[in-house]
Design brief:
Blueprint (H helix, E strand, L loop, with lengths): L11 H19 L1 E3 L2 H7 L4 H20 L6 E7 L14 E10 L4 H67 L5 H35 L6 E4 L22 H22 L5 E10 L4 E9 L9 H65 L5 H35 L11
Parallel strand pairs: 1-4
Antiparallel strand pairs: 2-3, 3-5, 5-6
Helix pairs in contact: 3-4, 4-5, 4-6, 4-8, 6-7, 7-8
């Protein structure tokens, strides 16, 4: 089928322009660009994981408000001496009683309940801050993962382009009779393998951007980044000291322990019986008179002394104390490990850069020697493999550097871009 080579009608030109603009607009609408990380994190306030954290804090605040409530009174109306045998078959000799009963909490139950509620709010806010830091860390890793996926595609395409150039040179030498046809077949095999690698890298990129979009709460997947993160990482000569007792995970464990201690106190005080005071008025139809009544009732703690709840609260307290102690040890270890990994990542990045420079020069010289017929194809392929490996090492070093920075930022209570999280 031949392509159309004549002129288009004048009426068709505006229509094609409009169609082209509409297609371009649709492509732009579909192509969602992720904002810079700091802006993206601020925009994730409505993301499901962030909303879940806020809901937990609001739940604790609601329980704390409820803890201030006093017991409600109850009102009772009772009729006696009616619908019986003579002379109580009517209402002439009835006794009608209207009574108000008010429970009164003793033993400091209300104050203990309020204290436990407020401690629960503190613990919820501490867990929320720890959760936000964990979310910021996960989001930063997803953001960097998308950037790494982009870079892997670039590396694979660069290596494919170089392999195709090597294949072209090999075919030229084969045609000139300076190389066996086997060499061009070897080069062609390399090209096919690298094409498959490019396809795989593009598929991994789709997954990386889908994960970033899901974390940020976007229904439409991002397709590119407006700001790289890996290139912002400069070598750090050292990192300021981090107090393990001021880290978010330890503060959350400490707040949980305090809340558990208050629940033990509350469980013990709930074992104290409450008093119910009753006041009412009684109508005596026989005498056509009214009389006041009053009374006090007190439960007798014969069977239920709240021992099970007290034992459960004490066990919960022991568990919270153990988690607090374990978290302190784990946080101290995490700080030391992260600082050491951060220094090692910087050294690794510098070494990777030097390795890449050497690999680039080796490939350049190998390419010159091969085209001049002074070295075999196997040396050129080895040099290019070395260059591809060096580029991958540089990218892996940048990823390790980013991971170390992100871990230190989380322990310091900040995002990877330096914003404090409260």
């Amino acid at each position: 089928m031949k392509a159309y080579q004549g002129r288009l009608p004048h009426r068709a030109v505006p229509g094609m322009v409009v169609a082209t603009c509409l297609l371009a607009g649709a492509a732009t609408a579909r192509a969602q660009v992720a904002p810079p990380f700091a802006q993206l994190f601020r925009q994730t306030a409505d993301a499901p994981r962030q909303v879940e954290l806020e809901a937990e804090a609001e739940r604790a605040e609601g329980l704390a408000r409820q803890a201030h409530a006093r017991p409600n009174p109850n009102i009772s109306l009772m009729t006696e001496n009616v619908a019986g045998q003579m002379p109580y078959d009517g209402f002439d000799r009835s006794e009608n009683t209207l009574q108000i009963n008010q429970p009164i909490e003793l033993g400091g139950k209300r104050s203990a309940r309020i204290a436990a509620g407020e401690a629960g709010v503190e613990a919820a806010h501490a867990r929320t801050r720890d959760g936000r830091l964990a979310f910021a860390y996960t989001l930063a890793r997803a953001y960097a993962g998308a950037e790494i996926a982009d870079r892997r595609i670039d590396l694979a395409e660069d290596e494919l382009e170089e392999a195709e150039a090597d294949l072209k040179a090999a075919r030229a030498l084969v045609e000139a009779g300076k190389e066996a046809r086997l060499r061009s077949l070897q080069a062609e095999t390399e090209v096919n393998s690298l094409r498959a690698l490019v396809v795989t890298a593009k598929a991994e990129r789709v997954g990386a951007y889908a994960r970033l979009s899901a974390l940020s709460g976007q229904s439409t997947s991002y397709s590119s980044l407006s700001e790289p993160l890996l290139s912002r990482l400069e070598p750090m000569k050292g990192h300021g000291p981090i107090d393990p007792e001021q880290t978010a995970p330890f503060l959350a464990a400490k707040a949980d322990r305090e809340a558990a201690a208050h629940r033990v106190t509350l469980a013990k005080r709930q074992a104290i019986p409450d008093v119910t005071v009753s006041v009412g008025v009684r109508r005596l139809e026989v005498d056509k008179a009214n009389a006041l009544i009053a009374g006090v009732s007190l439960p007798f703690p014969l069977f239920d002394r709240n021992r099970g709840n007290i034992d459960a609260a004490q066990a919960e307290l022991r568990g919270a104390e153990a988690r607090k102690a374990a978290m302190l040890l784990e946080t101290e270890a995490e700080i030391h490990a992260s600082q050491a990994l951060n220094e090692a990542a910087d050294v690794r990045a510098l070494a990777a850069d030097r390795t890449l420079q050497t690999a680039e020069e080796s490939y350049r010289l190998a390419r010159i020697a091969y085209e001049a017929g002074k070295s075999p194809l196997i040396e050129l392929l080895a040099a290019r493999h070395g260059l591809g490996a060096a580029r991958a090492v540089v990218l892996d070093a940048r990823a390790a550097q980013f991971e170390a920075r992100a871990r230190l930022a989380r322990l310091s209570g900040r995002t990877i871009t330096g914003e404090d999280i409260q």
